[in-house]
Amino acid sequence: MRDTLRTVLRWPLYSPLRLVSVIAAGILLLVLVSSFDGQEKGGASHKVTSGSNAEPSKAASPSSSPSPSPAASPDVSVALDTARTFVDIWASHQEPEKWLQALQPYTTPRLLARLQSTDPDRIDATRAGAAKVTDTGGGSLTSAAVSTDAGAVTVELLWAGDQWLVRDIQPGAQAVE
């Protein structure tokens, strides 16, 4: 038994690469355990998927559209209002600069950067209709289906600490009643 224990304890010291790997794995394990512990104690969910930007820009550029009203907690009804407002602006067919400026208060910086290559005149929809939640992703993420006059779209929203921001929009969605 003693020889087995000695062999197991020597294994990480056999080479510098093994030692660094064991230390990195230990740190990763500690980080994972502490993040799960924080979520179980009522901490905020830090669920991030690839391609998202979890830190939205706090700097607001001047805009003629009203800013989304901040809420104390991630209220799903506020998410629906944000999704519907965003889709209404997205479908508005304004000139590109004004269109991007109007969308900015409702989007993550990453989505706004992607929308810079979009021609608003090529969007088939011209107005938004009803919105409903299709998926709640654990408090800080949610998805909504928003009907338009050209079919429903799926809007993914991210809770940014003080407001919901749209992080993605895709054509097609679950039916909106």
Structure report:
There is one protein chain. Residues 38-72 have low confidence and may be disordered. By secondary structure, the protein is of the alpha+beta class. The protein is built from 5 helices and 4 strands; from the N terminus they run αααααββββ. The relative contact order is 0.15. It has a 4-stranded antiparallel sheet.
Key features of this structure:
177 residues, alpha+beta, four-stranded antiparallel beta sheet, 5 helices, 4 strands, 36% helix
Short structural summary:
This protein is an alpha+beta fold and 177 residues long. The protein is 36% helix and 18% strand.
Could you give the count of β-strands? 4
Helix fraction bin = 25-40%
The major pleated sheet works out as: 4 strands, antiparallel
- For the residues shown, what is the average pLDDT? 76
List the helices and strands and how they pair.
Elements (H helix, E strand, L loop, with lengths): L1 H9 L5 H25 L35 H15 L5 H8 L5 H7 L12 E9 L4 E8 L4 E7 L4 E8 L6
Antiparallel strand pairs: 1-2, 2-3, 3-4
